[in-house]
Amino acid sequence: MLRIAVPNKGSLSEPASAMLHEAGYRQRKDRRELVLVDAENEVEFFFLRPRDIAVYVGSGKLDIGITGRDLLLDSGSPAEEILQLGFAGSTFRYATRPGTAKDVSEFGGMTVATSFAGLVQQHLAENNVDASVVRLDGAVETAIQLGVAEIIADVVETGTTLRNAGLEIIGEPILKSEAVVIRGTGAPDDDPKVRQFLRRMQGVLVARRYVMMDYDIRVEHVEKAVALTPGLESPTVSPLHHEGWVAVRSMVPSKDAQRIMDELYDLGARAILTTGIHACRL
C-alpha cells in the first residue's frame, strides 16, 4: 500500500482531508483515529503532527505526505515538495521595533526569536548574517518586549497583531508558504502509485479552478465565441436541430465565468449555463 502522512490538526488538517475526500479517498470520521486503511484505493493514511510529517517522509518510513512548505524547510529533513496544493497560504517575515533595523543585512550581532529556527538559520546563512536564533513555541510577539530578542520572525497575514505590539515588518519576505505534497529526496520518480495519487490531486485542483460552460450561438459568431472560451485544448462544437445554430461546451476559469457569460450574451449567445466539475483528468 501507498503510505501517506496527513496533518492530524491545525490549519492544514481539514483542508487536506477535504481534498483527499474529493480525490476519492476514505478519510477518518473520528479525530482520535491515527491510522486509516483505504483498502479499495490501496492507501494507508497516517495522521501525524504537521511538524513531524517531513521527518517521517524524509526517513523513508512513509512514502509521501501533506505538510506546509515552511514546516518542510524548517525540519531540515531530506524531503522535497512535488505538488503545490493551493491552500493554507502564508507569508513568513521579520519584524522589530521601529528604528532597530531596515533589513536582514543589519541583523549582525542581534538575536532573532521564532518558532521556525531551522528556517530562519538557513535564511540568515544564505544572507551571510551572523545572528543568534532563539526558538520559541507559539506566539513570539512578546519576545522583544521581554528582552529575549531584538527581532522576531513569524507568519504574517494582515500585520495587525504586530502593529498592536508596537512592531513593524521589515525587509523582504523570508518565505511564501502553502500546503504541498512531499516525498523523500532521492525517491523514485516512476512509482505508479505515487503518480496515480498526484493525478487525482491535480484533478481536484483543476476541478476547483474551472467550471463547464455550455451555450448556443449562431454559426457566424462561433469564432468570436470560441476566442472567449478556448477551453484547455479546444471546445466541443455541435450542430443544433435549428439550422444556423450550434452548441458549444468548454471549460473556463471559474473566477472569469460571470464576465465571460456577459460577453457571450452580448455576442448573441443564449442558454448559457455553467456547471461545477467534481473531478477530472487532463
TrEMBL record:
It catalyses: 1-(5-phospho-beta-D-ribosyl)-ATP + diphosphate = 5-phospho-alpha-D-ribose 1-diphosphate + ATP. Residues 49-203 form the ATP phosphoribosyltransferase catalytic domain. Keywords: Amino-acid biosynthesis, ATP-binding, Cytoplasm, Glycosyltransferase, Histidine biosynthesis, Magnesium, Metal-binding, Nucleotide-binding, Transferase. Signal peptide: none annotated. It comes from the Bacteria. Its EC number is 2.4.2.17. One of its GO terms (molecular function) is ATP phosphoribosyltransferase activity. NCBIfam families: hisG (TIGR00070), HisG_C-term (TIGR03455). Catalyzes the condensation of ATP and 5-phosphoribose 1-diphosphate to form N'-(5'-phosphoribosyl)-ATP (PR-ATP). Has a crucial role in the pathway because the rate of histidine biosynthesis seems to be controlled primarily by regulation of HisG enzymatic activity. This is ATP phosphoribosyltransferase. It comes from Streptomyces endophytica. The lineage of its organism: Bacteria, Bacillati, Actinomycetota, Actinomycetes, Kitasatosporales.
